[in-house]
Amino acid sequence: MEFHLCARCAPRYHDLGVATSSPRDEACHICKGALLQIQKLVAQAVDLSDAFEWSSFSVSSSFPSSCLVREEEIADFAGPGKFTSLKNQINSELSGMISKETGKKNAQRNADAAFEFDFINSKCAARPMPLFLFGRYIKLSRRHCQSRWHCSSCRGKGCAYCMGSGMNYPSVEDEIGKAVLPFFSAKECILHASGREDVDVRCIGGRPFVMEIRSPKKRKEDVSQIELELSKNQHVKAAGLKIVRQGMIDAVCNSHFDKEYSALVSADRPLNAEDARICESLSGSVLLQKTPNRVLSRRADLERQRRVHAVRADLAEGGRLTLRIFAEAGTYIKEFIHSDGGRTTPSLSEALGCKATCEELDVIRIQDYFLETLL
Ligand SMILES: [Zn+2]
Ligand SMILES: [Zn+2]
Fold it and tell me: Are residues 145 and 29 in the same domain?
């Protein structure tokens, strides 16, 4: 059996004694001359990669399916494992050529730059891989939501209702983005966080997050400048910033931590020292919480048990109480206070025998010690 193969394809089958080199590369039985472009495409791709900073790269390639079919035919004839596949061979050649040209290393799994070679359309691309920035954010505003939330009237285009912003609320994602995007010369960033607080709830205890930064033209390890920049933002700040691997997104998003809250509570009558004592007596109680009314349209109606580890209550002005509540991950605190029409029991309303209202709520501590071991 004899095939005409090009100088690039022939060595892959050399041991089989089935191939002869063709005088014309275009007549190659496998690639039909597609690999003639390899030098040109590598030069183009390396040029493209000048547009951004990178120090390691990955390579991928695509071929016309007819090439792969012809290779299959030879594979059937030769038996498996007897030759190097077109893809493996070319990827390793491409990798070697890029290394030689740029002096940089192939790091297939954790690369800064992705080189893509399309031998079907004779095209190539070089793209910066996303960066992942871990940190803990502090939200000092009662009118910021966590992720971008497009205006319900115009769906983000900007209208009179949202005053041209395209958003229902300003967001933590955008505030951090304002500092992050110019720093990395990136176009887009996406916030992944460990849970979320309501728009009107401040988060004083830092909430763990990973910011995914798409298409960064710059890559820097020293990210302290971002913290400094955010320290001037009166609504959102961030601490403990660090570049991490993509896997931290799952670690952060799937984590559930016990939290401590501060709540300012009023009622339909003035609250007194005896009421404070009653609140504290709920320390250690296990709540039965049905899915809150306010989220029932979006979530399944379930009943869950959550433990309130500790409650401390102090008298505040105007017949109100300031509560410190330390509760299990996933406890609905506002509902624990007002009872949600009896859907949460026990509750402060129930215990105090009046209509209690949560006027202000802050997350003051997120017990995320386990993250320290991951970082
Ligand atoms: Zn060939
Ligand atoms: Zn709008």
Answer: no
What is the C-alpha to C-alpha distance for residues 323 and 298, in angstroms, rounded to an integer?
29
Separation of CA 123 and ligand 1 centre (Å):
17
- Out of 128, 162, 188, a domain closes at 128
**284: domain range?**
259-369
Domain count, the chain: 3
Residue with tokens 């803990």: 136
CATH number at residue 332: 3.30.70.3190
Ligand number, closest to the Cα atom of 161: 2
pLDDT in tens, 72-101: 887 777 666 677 888 888 999 999 999 999
Q: Residue 111 and residue 128: Cα distance in Å, rounded?
A: 9
Q: Is 198 among the residues known to form the active site?
A: yes
Query: How far does residue 49's CA lie from ligand 1's centre (Å)?
Result: 27
Average pLDDT, the chain: 92
Q: Ion ligand 1 — residues with CB under 5 Å?
A: 6, 9, 28, 30-31
Q: Give me the catalytic one of 50, 118, 174, 198.
A: 198
Give the pLDDT confidence of 204-233 residue by residue, as tens digits. Answer: 999 999 999 999 999 988 999 999 999 999
Q: What is the pLDDT of residue 10?
A: 79
Same domain, 49 and 124: yes
End-to-end CA distance of the chain: give it in Å, rounded: 58
Q: Quote the ligand 1 centre to 36 CA distance (angstroms).
A: 8
Q: What is the pLDDT of residue 16?
A: 64
d(CA 155, CA 235): 24
> Nearest Cα to 213, choosing from 135, 133, 110?
133
**374 occurs within a structural domain:** no
Which of the ligands is closest to the CA of residue 93?
A: 1
> What CATH number corresponds to the domain at position 18?
3.30.2130
Assessment of whether the complete model's pTM goes beyond 0.85: yes
- The phi and psi torsions of 236 (rounded to 5 degrees) equal -135, 130
pLDDT higher at 11 or 261: 261
Quote the pLDDT of residue 142.
97
